[in-house]
Design goal:
The protein has 545 residues and is α/β, with parallel strands linked by helices. It is 39% helix and 16% strand. It contains 22 helices and 18 strands. The strands form three sheets. It has a six-stranded parallel beta sheet with strand order 2-1-3-4-6-5, sandwiched between helices. Helix 1 (3-13) packs across helix 2 (26-33). The chain is globular and about 70 Å long. The model has no long low-confidence stretch (mean pLDDT 97). The structure holds thiamine diphosphate and magnesium ion.
């Protein structure tokens, strides 16, 4: 048996059902021989984004894997791996490598050297005998501890070597670690003692699938609950205690409650300082529970901290808190819910004119509002893109079921959303999978709409075309006036049709909902859809200083 076949068999043993890839890499052929579906993209970045979504949507229970060529393929993959690193997504990256005699000789690209800072582990394999160890290490790293990309560079002459007889491979376990019991007692006491606690849930809750525990904690403490963008959909946003999600733009109720909190409890979050996450107000008591001790006291000072899997942390806290409260809320809930409802209705009243605008070009808020009220939200997985679409959708989209919103933004690569929607559709074929993006974003990865057509991945792509990089208007005034530097153009509905998908351009408010309904039907028939909405260059966001 050749090394490349042994690797394909190892992937199979690890439960890999799809290999996202771009040639040339002999692993593609070997995977196909093992009945692992191979999906070939139009550029490496999108393949990595699709693998990324498989891992996210399965809470890391299925690991997305991507393989590419040595040299150009490895060079061109950098963005996709960097995005997964930024957002802490567990994927396995298998670049080919130059033959061993040329592996580390300039100017040949070394993935091992160049990917060091955007992977959790990166290694080169030189010896046939070392292959199973390397694969086992990679899958053990990717399944355990802080989720992040891992990389194994496989020189292509090595792949053709014969493995020794008796080759075996045992899949890597997923191991959880729980919090220090003494810390749990302290934190439980502090949570019960707080007068106005706010719970802030990150994506650790998604990876631990700790949604029921999060809900129980919120209801028992009667604590308003929010999430990071990555954690969005971990808590039902139609729940009376929901404040909506954090992000660059946020709801009025979230802003208000964070500022009036006496304690903020972060669970499964990094509290990283980012432009694309709600900042924790100064001077608050902070409890930080996370898997990775490297995040404790990193950006936000923690008064108390717990290290462990979000599910085990919540389980342990619930035991103590149930005990302290005799399993009964103290009756604060109705007042808290009333305060939230009041602020929410003021906030929505303020935004109503934008959300229901009859104007043309269309208000992007109207498109999002109509989309929200046309799809079956609990059976839809939606993701934003970089640019205004993210800040327009994230506060207003109310997620009701876990992992139905893919939020991101520790780094914000334009064009990420398309691959996410495609990967999500493969991981959850029964869901309607949508990416909402702007016309700058489609410029990066738009050609991979052809992959959706060719590979029969019927997603719904919602394009807000304002013929502009609107989010840059404020900071590129002179360049725009003199050289029209923020202008862009294109007819993307025709583009989608030319690639074999279904495309429609929508310009009138009354046409938004009928077009969405036609689009849903098309996706159900197996055809990917691109709806191109001609929108205004909106620069108003629900932001609070
Ligand atoms: C790869 C990459 N390069 C640059 C940026 C910076 N950037 C963020 S949004 C944006 C323009 C967004 O325009 P568009 O997608 O059309 O959305 P709009 O603001 O017009 O609604 C740019 C250049 C980025 N996020 N990613
Ligand atoms: Mg635009």
């Amino acid at each position: 048996m050749k090394v490349v076949t042994a690797i394909a068999k190892a992937m199979k043993a690890e439960g890999v059902e799809i290999l996202f890839a771009y040639p040339v890499n002999p692993l593609i052929e070997a995977a196909a021989e093992e009945d692992i579906r191979t999906i070939i993209v139009r550029q490496e970045r999108t393949g990595l984004h699709m693998a990324d979504a498989v891992s996210r949507i399965s809470s890391g229970q299925r690991i997305g894997v991507f393989a590419m060529q040595h040299g150009p393929g490895a060079e061109n993959s950098f963005g996709g791996v960097a995005q997964a690193f930024g957002d802490s997504v567990p994927i396995v990256v298998l670049p080919g490598g130059y033959p061993r005699r040329l592996l580390n000789i300039p100017p040949n690209f070394s993935s091992f050297l160049n990917y060091q800072h955007i992977t959790k582990s990166a290694e080169q394999v030189f010896l046939t005998d070392a292959v199973p160890d390397a694969m086992r290490r990679a899958f053990t790293q990717v399944r355990n501890g802080r989720p992040r990309p891992v990389l194994v560079e496989l020189p292509y002459d090595l792949l053709q070597d014969e493995v020794k007889d008796g080759w075996t491979y045992t899949p890597a376990p997923r191991l959880l670690s729980g919090p220090d019991p003494r810390g749990v007692t302290e934190v439980a006491a502090a949570l019960v003692a707080a007068e106005r606690p706010v719970i802030y849930a990150g994506q650790g809750v998604h990876y631990a699938r700790a949604w029921p525990q999060l809900k129980e904690l919120a209801e028992l403490l009667e604590a308003p609950t929010t999430t990071s963008l990555q954690g969005k959909s971990a808590f039902p946003e139609t729940h009376p205690l929901s404040l909506g999600s954090g992000g660059r733009s946020v709801s009025k109720q979230l802003h208000h409650f964070l500022n009036h909190a006496d304690l903020i409890f972060g669970i499964g979050c990094s509290f990283s300082t980012t432009h694309y996450g709600v900042a924790m107000p100064q001077g608050k008591r902070i409890i930080h529970a996370t898997l990775d001790p490297a995040d404790i006291n990193k950006d936000v000072r923690a008064d108390l901290a717990l290290v462990g899997d979000a599910g085990l942390v919540l389980d342990a806290l619930l035991v103590e808190i149930r005990d302290r409260l005799k399993s009964k809320p103290r009756g604060r809930g109705p007042a808290v819910a009333k305060e939230i409802a009041q602020l929410k209705s003021e906030w929505l009243a303020q935004w109503k004119p934008r959300l229901t605008a009859e104007s043309t070009p269309l208000s992007p808020y109207r498109v999002i509002w109509d989309l929200l009220h046309t799809v079956d939200v609990a059976n839809t997985i939606i993701t934003h893109d970089a640019g205004s679409p993210r800040d327009q959708i994230s506060p207003f989209w109310e997620s009701t079921a876990p992992l139905t919103y893919i939020g991101w933004g520790k780094t914000t690569q334009l064009g990420y959303g398309l691959g996410l929607a495609m990967g999500a559709k493969l991981a959850a074929p029964d869901k309607l999978c949508i990416n909402v993006w702007g016309d700058a974003a489609i410029g990066f990865t738009g050609m991979d709409f052809e992959t959706a057509v060719r590979e029969r991945i019927p997603i719904l792509s919602v394009l807000l075309n304002n013929f502009s990089m609107a989010i840059e208007l404020k900071i590129m005034k002179v360049a725009t006036e003199k050289y029209r530097s923020t202008d862009i153009s294109g007819n993307y509905a025709e583009f989608a049709k030319a690639l074999g998908g279904y495309g429609e351009r929508v310009t009138q408010p009354s046409e938004i909902i009928p077009a969405i309904k036609r689009a849903i039907t098309k996706t159900q028939e197996g055809t990917p859809v691109l709806l191109e909405f001609i929108t205004e260059k909106a620069v108003d966001f629900s932001m609070y200083p």
